[in-house]
């Protein structure tokens, strides 16, 4: 599904990703852990096409296509979803409008009928009920005045609605209480299927108790320095990054 | 790859170029070029006007001759040669049409191209039971089709071209014309008074709630024809009317002058809601062509508890110079001004309002949203004046500017004059930028760059968009997207 080869990228002339190799097959969940500033968010931005993140080498193939040639919205429409580490506020735009506009843009892209207000409302109510998210959030402007946890929940709700093929979660668990953590994990697990994959960036092995990964990678200083199964996360928690990276 | 092709088309359809750029073939009957007393007499004679009106025009003309074009606004344009403009052109119809069947099919085709909402097209076509919108279409300065008049007449509402009102309701016109905006008011008002060719007239009698929204579509058509509209609306005691003004113009290389005057008179307990969506040709990416829009709009709340609200969405014109104002004379009267002004490329807008509080307990609200993109310059200029007798008068002003890119400018120029010891004046102003982060967030959810921008800007304008009547709000939201075309990437 996703094949990253020797990927190098820089921001403002500073090299951040220094040769990443990673293959994600359909249905797999990969966890990425690593110290602050290692380049985890950078990787997620490069994959989703954010401006200013310049790819200087390597390649990324997504479902047989050259991912790096696509614009951010094309990538989104092709099923790449990034749950932001820091979700962005958009004043004056109700969350419901935002969601409906996004969903319809993606449906239109796929040649599907756009949903009208009633159909959309029905769908979104189903999702909020499933995830146990209060739907009063929908009336409020996107992320404006949301608590940290509410912002993350909003990301999960968006993901549930857009049903992406490749989920990129950047520290979706950070700042969540234990109930919200379960909501987030539930959001991912509900979407889990043989066709869908996920890249889950986290600092805490606790999340991986709920979203059980197939692989765990350690990203340090722009490179994947170690990969393993879920036991690697436990090991990391015990020994810290320094010991692992040095090994 | 077929998918990418579709995306290209999607983007193309969102970023469609100015879609009203066509020139209609309707032959104009045109006065000789330039301005003189003879031209003023020509116009008055063409309109078969009474002597008093000709005299008024001539006085205005002579006064205008003594005036200087104002230069205080923050707009920059080549000097206008007032002798190089045609002051009169009318669609060639010998007699006034009695029904729409008699209206030039070319003209109806123009409406079609303009994308006048279906509902209103039906109204124009006289479909029975069609929407509750009456359209008085002003085409090249002469109203050629007025519909729904009968239904309005039943309520005693008069809605007709002002030239007709001069003939049929001279007492009303004589009493109120120039009573809110005298010809001595400013350079462009004097010019308009001398040469205005047509516009709408509306009178709502005592106690009547106008049964439909009144709507006028302005168009500028013949090349190099100045457009001098004159609109007069009178809401008698305890009456109500909502008036919609929409404007579009075909594409031109020559800059065109538009100097309209709108006068509103609101008596005891009456209310006028006046909404404008203005998308005249703004000029191309290099600032070539485009309308010069110098408008004087003013409302006089003469009676107690009178209320007026101006809502405007200004996305067009090369230059906009416009300050819809409220004179709050009656005790407890209320003035509101809600404005969205979008400037892109090389557009310049200097717009705002004046709230003149004279009566006791008068209150006013100003919400202004200015959006600048490209190399555009947008200025909010607002005056709040509390007169000596304006006890306990209140004003609240919110003035927000949004910048797209770093070559444009936004300016806020509030003037406050307070002579009342008990008045309260509040002013808030913010300037923000559309961030790369916000755009990326939207794009990451599947919206194109243009769609993302439109969504963010619509969010910024929300408080004002909500003030528009439904049909207008939808149109305005689309316009926001269209007018920001080319502002990203
Ligand atoms: N716009 C920028 N300009 C310059 N350097 C940047 C910019 N954005 C990020 N960086 C740098 O890139 C490096 C990697 O940042 P990144 O956000 O990818 O780290 P991370 O692994 O996600 O860290 P964390 O665990 O703290 O979220 C850091 O050193 C950071 O300071
Ligand atoms: Mg990060």
UniProtKB/TrEMBL annotation, chain A:
InterPro entries from the entry?
A: AAA+_ATPase, ABC_transporter-like_ATP-bd, ABC_transporter-like_CS, FeS-cluster_ATPase_SufC, P-loop_NTPase
Enumerate the spans annotated as ABC transporter domain: 2-246
Task: State the source organism's domain of life.
Answer: Bacteria
Give an example GO molecular function. Answer: ATP binding
Return any one Pfam family short name.
Answer: ABC_tran
**UniProt KW ATP-binding keyword:** yes
List the keywords (alphabetical). ATP-binding, Nucleotide-binding
User: Which PANTHER family does the record cross-reference, listed alphabetically?
Assistant: ABC TRANSPORTER I FAMILY MEMBER 6, CHLOROPLASTIC
What family is reported?
A: Belongs to the ABC transporter superfamily. Ycf16 family.
Give the NCBIfam families listed for this entry.
sufC
Q: What's the name of the protein?
A: ABC transporter ATP-binding protein
TrEMBL record, chain B:
Per the database record, which ranges form the SUF system FeS cluster assembly SufBD N-terminal domain? Answer: 153-210
Q: What is this protein called?
A: Fe-S cluster assembly protein SufB
The lineage's top-level taxon is Bacteria
The entry assigns this protein to a family as follows: Belongs to the iron-sulfur cluster assembly SufBD family.
Instruction: Provide the SUF system FeS cluster assembly SufBD core domain boundaries.
Output: 218-460
